């Protein structure tokens, strides 16, 4: 250790392990490190009460696989042509089988989802090893997160809210990561990590510049997850020369309403699988024509096309067009607090008759389709032609264009309504590449000393994604990162 360099820094706080991000991965890392005898400081960007990242607002399931061999086979099949190194597959497969055991050890109550439900790619080899679990007897609405948060609070973990990590402190001679520069209420703080830093601060789903640079097929995209995930971990790791992987992979897109008043998206009930509102509804692109099955059968944003899976097309701007019958049938927003930041954290109360949102301009209306076409600046006659075609298909009982088999109802009389939809996602999968020890590595594969990661920041998922896999990975690689960071000899 370069003593002069280390001693020239004024340290405002210190711990054996510094964890950046208080979500599922951060919780698993911090708990494992403390139980191994290490001191831990956890830094989080969110104010107290809004911590938890995407884990807090996901559907609360996590993956626990039944056999390492089956899990490895399934993961390789999910990756398809985008391979992940064998040692990474092996360590992931082994550790994912231990999630229930670990959760039970910290006070959790693992309960399996209805067996077989939600296995997204049952035709792939190894899918029989997939088992989705949650904590307790209720699935959804942050119950698993609440258990994790209580487990953190029950242990001597120094959690610092509104203190985002801004920069990693690195010894210029040894390249070892010494700590983190955090910012709290405008003041920079140097947080010393005597053994290691673990980045668990999620992806870049709320960073439009990074979305534009890295994600294909979407000119912009808004998150349904944590608005605090702005790519800070990606940036900090890149500054130290980290390699990146899986940057174009994300859990999306879906289609949702985004308004300036709220940081995350609103899920439209007419697009949600479980609800069948009355009335006619289609979604059109900038040419005023349909482009997909609006009740789309995606698997976390991927749709099947000629035997392969691709991201859902989202030609922007998109508009959901619907009639008076659907407007009168009840709220068009799916506000059930089971998933999503807007539903769980913002808690917006959508009006029962949709009139408040019409007055806000979130919903636009016109007496005729021709007038609505003009208001939305779509090609003349496009909506009239699209609705005519849709009504003909409803009369025939078959959507010949896109195979939609839900809410196949014709448009009635006007007035007519429109909601602009944006591409939406829960999370990105890409970030700094990690190795089997959860170390962040450079392009040549050499690890950056004392720097680790876990969770969605540089996830192992490179192509297709199995639901509950991210939280399962948060737990697995959080434990791996913690064990290896604690095993490092403290610098002095």
Strand segment count:
21
> What percent of the residues sit in helical stretches (DSSP H or I)?
25-40%
Mean pLDDT, all residues = 94
Q: Report how far apart the termini are.
A: 7 Å
Count of folded domains: 2
For this structure, what is the CATH class of the largest domain?
A: Alpha Beta
Question: What's the CATH H-level homologous superfamily of the largest domain?
Answer: FAD/NAD(P)-binding domain
CATH fold field value of the largest domain: FAD/NAD(P)-binding domain
Please tally the helical runs, counting DSSP H or I stretches of 4 or more residues: 15
| Low-pLDDT runs | none
- Given the helix and strand composition, which structural class is it? alpha+beta
Strand fraction equals 15-25%
CATH architecture title of the largest domain: 3-Layer(bba) Sandwich
Gross geometry = elongated
* Biggest pleated sheet: 8 strands, mixed
Q: What is the C-alpha radius of gyration, as a whole number of Å?
A: 24 Å
Structural account:
There is one protein chain. The chain has two domains: 309 residues, 3-Layer(bba) Sandwich (FAD/NAD(P)-binding domain); 172 residues, Succinate dehydrogenase/fumarate reductase flavoprotein, catalytic domain (Flavocytochrome C3, Chain A, domain 1, Alpha-Beta Complex), CATH 3.90.700.10. It has 15 helices and 21 strands. Helix 2 runs parallel beside helix 15 and helix 4 packs across helix 5. The protein has 492 residues and is α+β, with helices and mostly antiparallel strands.
């Amino acid at each position: 250790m370069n003593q002069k360099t280390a001693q020239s820094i004024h340290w405002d706080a210190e711990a054996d392990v510094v964890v950046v991000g208080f979500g599922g991965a951060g919780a698993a890392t911090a708990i494992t490190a403390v139980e191994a005898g290490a001191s831990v400081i956890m830094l989080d960007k969110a104010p107290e009460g809004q911590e938890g990242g995407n884990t807090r607002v996901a559907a609360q399931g996590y993956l626990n696989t039944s056999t390492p061999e089956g899990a490895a086979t399934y993961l390789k099949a999910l990756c398809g042509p985008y391979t992940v190194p064998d040692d990474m597959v092996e360590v992931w497969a082994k550790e994912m089988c231990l999630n229930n055991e670990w959760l039970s050890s910290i006070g959790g109550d693992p309960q399996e989802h209805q067996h077989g439900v939600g296995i997204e790619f049952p035709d792939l080899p190894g899918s029989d090893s997939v088992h989705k679990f949650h904590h307790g007897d209720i699935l959804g609405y942050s119950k698993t997160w609440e258990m994790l948060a209580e487990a953190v609070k029950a242990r001597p973990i120094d959690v610092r809210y509104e203190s985002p990590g801004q920069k990693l402190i690195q010894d210029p001679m040894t390249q070892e990561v010494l700590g983190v520069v955090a910012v709290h209420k405008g003041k920079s703080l140097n947080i010393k990590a005597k053994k290691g830093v673990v980045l668990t601060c999620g992806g870049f789903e709320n960073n439009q510049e990074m979305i534009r640079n890295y994600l294909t097929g979407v000119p912009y995209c808004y998150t349904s997850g944590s608005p605090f995930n702005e790519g800070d971990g990606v940036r900090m790791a890149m500054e130290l020369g980290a390699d990146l992987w899986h940057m174009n992979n994300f859990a999306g897109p879906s289609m949702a309403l985004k308004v300036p008043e709220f940081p995350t998206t609103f899920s439209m009930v007419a697009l949600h699988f479980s609800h069948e509102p009355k009335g006619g509804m289609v979604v059109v692109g900038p040419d005023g024509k349909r482009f997909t099955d609006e009740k789309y059968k995606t698997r976390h944003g991927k749709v099947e096309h000629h035997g392969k899976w691709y991201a859902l097309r989202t030609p922007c701007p998109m508009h959901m067009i619907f009639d008076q019958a659907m407007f009168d049938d009840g709220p068009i927003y799916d506000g059930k607090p089971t998933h999503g930041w807007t539903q769980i954290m913002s808690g917006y109360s959508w009006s029962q008759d949709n009139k408040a949102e019409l007055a806000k301009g979130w919903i636009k209306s016109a007496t005729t389709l021709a007038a609505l076409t003009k208001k939305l600046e779509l090609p003349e006659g496009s909506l009239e032609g699209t609705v005519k075609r849709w009504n003909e298909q409803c009369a025939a009982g078959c959507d010949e264009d896109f195979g939609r088999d839900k809410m196949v109802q014709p448009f009635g009389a006007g007035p007519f309504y429109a909601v602009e939809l944006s591409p939406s996602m829960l999370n990105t999968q890409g970030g700094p590449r990690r190795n089997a020890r959860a170390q962040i590595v450079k392009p040549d594969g050499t690890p950056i000393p004392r720097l680790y990661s876990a969770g969605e920041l540089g996830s192992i998922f490179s192509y297709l994604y199995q639901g509950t896999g991210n939280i399962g990975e948060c737990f697995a690689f959080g434990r791996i990162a913690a064990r290896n960071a604690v095993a490092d000899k403290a610098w002095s």
